[in-house]
Amino acid sequence: MNYPRITSLKTESQFRARLAELGIELPLQHPLPTGSDLPLARSCRLGDRTIGNRFAILPMEGWDGTRDGQPTDFTRRRWENFGKSGAKLIWGCEAVAVRPDGRANPNQLVINDDTWRDLQQLRLKLETAHRNAIGNTHDLLIGLQLTHSGRFANPYHHGRPEPRTAYRHPILDLRMSDSINERTSLTDNELDE
Predict the structure, then answer these.
(1) What is the CA radius of gyration of the chain?
(2) Which of 79, 118, 130, 188 has its CA 20 to 30 A from that of 143?
(3) DSSP code, position 92
(4) 14-24 per-position pLDDT tens digit
(5) Nearest to 140 by CA among 132, 149, 148
(6) Distance CA 57, CA 145 (A)
(7) What is the rounded CA–CA span in Å between residue 125 and residue 63?
């Protein structure tokens, strides 16, 4: 079976033909609305903010940062493309670890004194790309997902868990029983930090 990219279906008739080919019955409005009439193109409110449309970029782990948690050219290109996309809710771009030992993988970004300026530059690159592609950023909302992988941390070597937990859990620890011990617990000071 042929699996064309959805973006290759440029017209309503091409899309309808593909649905028929797959035997999918999907009612579509005719003619399809365009422009600001599209439901996903409508703005929405979040508190006192207006978000320009309902397209969103959700956080992910790019697995392409440096070993010390800095962004790479791949990371910068991805964030720039997020800006060009036209999505007005860019909620996360990236799952960024709050501590080096809390990363899910050795190439996850980290926010700390050594990396925050690079994260700021990523945001500025995204905003510039968005402004150049869309024309404005006044209704753009950018967030950052801060994470700590806890018992599922693999911060320094792929495939070698090095968990850091807030507490021992009788059920969750069963999965990681070989890796969880008293030395892996975060101290109260580390949690406060």
Answers:
(1) 22
(2) 188
(3) E
(4) 999 999 999 99
(5) 132
(6) 12
(7) 19
